[in-house]
Amino acid sequence: MSWYAAHVVLYFEYREGPQDEFPVMENVYLIHAATDEAAFARAENRGRSDCAEDDESLTVNGRPARLVFGGVRKLISCATDAETLEDGVEATYSFLVVSGRQQLDALIKGEPVPVLYEE
């Protein structure tokens, strides 16, 4: 059995009217599975279980919305030789590009900046 970091995309969809932008969440789930295929299936099931398509009270920007499962964006094998996760194991990663030092410093501080998200 191996550990995986599953990047799962959920997005908000308005129940009515036009929608030009989609608020998106990328949740990262730790999955313990015997194969890549089993890990992918478990990640998909986990992501779908977090959706709130039937929650009539959910709103985004004051508009009724639903939280929709988008898909498993990537699955990263991690801690493949360990039955238990250990301190310092790399669980996942992302590769981003920012324009200039000022935006890099802002990103490091947790401030919003435009980024190019690369795979």
Written overview of the protein:
The protein has 119 residues and is α+β, with helices and mostly antiparallel strands. It is 18% helix and 39% strand. It is built from two helices and six strands; from the N terminus they run ββαβββαβ. The strands form two sheets. A four-stranded antiparallel sheet has the order 2-1-4-3, covered by helices on one side. Strand 3 and strand 4 form a beta hairpin. It is flat and about 50 Å long. The two termini are 26 Å apart. The relative contact order is 0.23. The mean pLDDT is 89.
Features of this protein?
single chain; 119 residues; alpha+beta; four-stranded antiparallel beta sheet; two-stranded antiparallel ribbon; 2 helices; flat
Secondary-structure map with pairings?
Elements: E1 2-14, E2 24-33, H1 36-49, E3 59-60, E4 63-78, E5 95-97, H2 101-108, E6 116-118
Antiparallel strand pairs: 1-2, 1-4, 3-4, 5-6
Shape: flat
In DSSP terms, counting alpha (H) and pi (I) runs of 4 or more, how many helices? 2
Instruction: Give the termini separation.
Output: 26 Å
Mean pLDDT: 89
Question: Which sheet architecture does the biggest sheet show?
Answer: 4 strands, antiparallel
Content of β-strand: 35-45%
Taking pLDDT < 50 over at least 5 consecutive residues as the criterion, the unreliable ranges are: none
Offer a quick outline of the entry.
With 119 residues, the protein is α+β, with helices and mostly antiparallel strands. The chain has helices spanning 36-49, 101-108, and strands at residues 2-14, 24-33, 59-60, 63-78, 95-97, 116-118.
